[in-house]
Design goal:
The protein is mainly alpha-helical and 82 residues long. The chain has a domain of 54 residues. It has 2 helices and no strands. Helix 1 runs antiparallel to helix 2. It is elongated and about 70 Å long. 0% of the residues are buried. Keywords: Signal.
Length: 82
């Protein structure tokens, strides 16, 4: 049963990392122009230095979580071999 769990977890991690590596589709073509002029879009707010730091830390934590999952799978597979 634990071998099945290891295989299931490994396939889930592989699928997640494979889909993350796929290139994002290009932006869709612009919509057809209408006779009415469109309103100007508000400028997207730029991230402050603190916000950028928070985003970087979040990305680091996510990558650490993935690494911990892989370590757990390796430990489980070693236990299965013994």
């Amino acid at each position: 049963m634990s071998r099945f769990l290891v295989i299931l977890l490994a396939s889930g991690l592989y699928a997640g990392t494979a889909s993350a590596a796929e290139p994002q589709p290009s932006s869709p073509p612009p919509p057809p122009r209408t006779s009415e002029p469109s309103k100007a879009k508000p400028a997207e707010p730029k991230l402050s230095a603190e916000d950028r730091e928070v985003v970087e830390n979040l990305e680091l934590l996510e990558s650490m979580d993935t690494a911990e999952d892989l370590d757990l799978l390796l430990e489980l597979s070693k236990e299965e071999e013994n």
